[in-house]
Design brief:
The protein has 507 residues and is α/β, with parallel strands linked by helices. It is 30% helix and 19% strand. It contains 15 helices and 23 strands. Strands 19-20-18-17-21-22-23 form a seven-stranded parallel sheet, sandwiched between helices. Strands 1-2-5-8 form a four-stranded antiparallel sheet, with no helix packed on it. Strands 13-12-14-15 form a four-stranded parallel sheet, with helices on both faces. It is globular and about 75 Å long.
Length: 507
């Protein structure tokens, strides 16, 4: 029997390898024949060639930073000797875009067909708020509905979701912050996982209910009612009226039943959080395989977190379907450079402390692993945060790297499934959209198995192929879309993870 290597080199050009075990000083990393000069924790980097101060450190065959001092063979490579430096790359827009071969087999899932042609994976009622000031009343209505047993008469409805947040007023009504919130709320109001929406405002806020409704049919099925607390006469009267309106919406939403639909109607938001040194070699590339399978079946997959593709954007621009699409992505990167600079931040204000404990040193390294989620499909288009996604294939939606905020944007853009890879053990859920949690390593999966849906650690520990693991993820997409509950749904997550992106001054 061949002994499993203790270190892994990801690309022949690399001058570091990844420890697959905790390795003590003086021990041999068998795959490279390198004796360690310091003890190294699983997921961390070891120099397999001498690296001079100022020389590029390479992982995945890509620059992850520059050595801040001379590094000897067998030395631990991390924050003490690796930093950011010049990482300029040739964007070579659209130079490597290769269309994936379509799979003619029609795979289906059982979903909720909506009047506008979308298909939902869940059938919730949403109580959407225009402003923080109506958040408590939205929760009061949901609690009153639960106590009254309102949903007992409507077995086809999955539940009631109050969508509350901390903004909607104290802001300009004419800037990108307002536009971003408007897109987000409108996207949730039209989301296919909601069978109906009750929209509640206070009445005097900047984000007016009348502006959101705007005299146009937000939902093609008409399953949207709206009110303001001031107009109804206060809290108790709004709750009473809200229960009446909610029952009317429920009667309509309950008529929906699961019926077969091609998986081309699925839109999967891809996220990673609490990443570690394994993220870029197990879960993320396996998800990339699943993403390519979805694209080949005509579905849509969404990569986001612009601040966490920084330094790896050239891998996406080269796969852009057109030069214009590549330039749209770089426009967002440049916006982020300006955004962080004017707020006295920096694009390398990342990885987080948890990421660093897991072995990630610079944003370049983290970004290269994060981009692996996107597979190899051409980049079809680039969208603003919460902008309605209207193209099939692999796309990018601009967002912060803060996971709840990024997922909020993806759902507003239309994602009816979320998949989330994690190495440190993130816990969260995102009603109305089910979230599949994928562990990057077997140790964390065993420790947090009640929160994790799939383990990708067996790619290293058991030699499972990326292709087989990607197929496993793909098949779970279809089962969850058809109604199988995820671990985060079973635990009841999703009530506090609606986090709109607040841009601009709070006044």
């Amino acid at each position: 029997m061949t002994e499993r290597p203790r270190m892994l080199t990801l690309n022949p050009q690399d001058n570091v390898a990844i420890a697959l075990d905790d390795i003590a000083a003086g021990d041999l990393g068998m795959s490279e024949g390198v004796t360690l000069l310091q003890s190294v924790t699983r997921g961390h980097k070891v120099a397999i060639a001498p690296i001079k101060a100022g020389e590029n450190v390479l992982r995945y065959g890509q620059i992850i930073g520059q050595a801040t001092c001379d590094i000897a063979v067998g030395e631990h490579v991390h924050v003490q000797n690796l930093g950011m430096g010049d990482h300029s790359q040739d964007y070579a827009h659209a130079s490597e875009a290769v269309a994936l071969e379509a799979i003619p087999e029609v795979r289906t899932f059982n979903g909720y067909h909506r009047a506008d042609g979308q298909v939902g994976t869940r059938n919730y009622l949403g109580i959407l708020t225009s402003v923080n000031c109506s958040g408590s009343v939205a929760k009061f209505i949901a609690e009153a509905a639960e106590k009254s047993g309102l949903l007992d008469d409507f077995p086809n409805i999955d539940g009631i979701v109050p969508i509350t947040h901390g903004t909607g007023c104290g802001m300009s009504g004419e800037n990108e912050g307002y536009d971003t919130l408007f897109r987000t709320l409108s996207g949730y109001a039209q989301h296919p996982n909601f069978g109906g929406i009750l929209l509640i405002g206070l009445g005097c806020e900047v984000m007016q209910v009348s502006a959101l409704v705007g005299g146009r049919p937000i939902r093609a099925d008409g399953a949207l009612r709206y009110m303001t607390i001031q107009h109804e006469g206060g809290t108790r009267k709004t709750i009473e009226k809200g229960l009446v309106e909610l029952r009317g919406i429920a009667e309509q939403a309950n008529m929906a039943t699961r019926e077969p639909a091609p998986i081309s109607h699925l839109m999967v938001g891809m996220q990673c959080g609490g990443s570690d040194g394994y993220s870029g070699i197990t879960a993320n590339p396996a998800l990339g395989v699943a993403s390519d399978l979805m694209v080949r079946h005509g579905a849509t997959t969404i990569l986001s977190e612009t601040s966490e593709i920084y330094g790896a954007e050239h891998l996406l621009t080269r796969r852009a379907a057109t030069v214009e699409v590549g330039e749209k992505l770089i426009d967002r990167v440049r916006w982020w450079e300006d955004y962080t600079a004017r707020n006295k931040g920096e694009m390398d204000n990342n990885p987080s402390p948890g990421n660093k404990r897991g072995g990630l040193t610079t944003i370049l390294e983290k970004s290269l692993g994060a981009v692996a989620k996107s597979g190899s499909a051409p980049l079809t288009d680039v969208y603003l945060f919460g902008e309605k996604i209207d193209k099939k294939g692999f796309v990018f939606m601009d967002s912060p790297g803060f996971d709840p905020c990024s997922v909020t944007g993806q759902i507003a853009s239309g994602a009816n499934l979320i998949v989330f890879t994690t190495g440190r053990g993130s816990v969260s859920g995102y009603m109305p959209t089910p979230c599949i949690k994928i562990a990057t390593n077997s140790e964390m999966y065993a420790r947090m198995s009640e929160d994790m849906d799939i383990n990708c650690g067996d790619i290293v520990s058991e030699g499972v192929s990326l292709q087989d693991k990607g197929r496993e993820i793909f098949e779970m997409f279809i089962r969850v879309a058809s109604g199988e509950q995820t671990k985060s749904e079973d635990l009841g997550f999703g009530g506090v993870e609606f986090v709109p992106w607040q841009i601009g001054a709070v006044m």
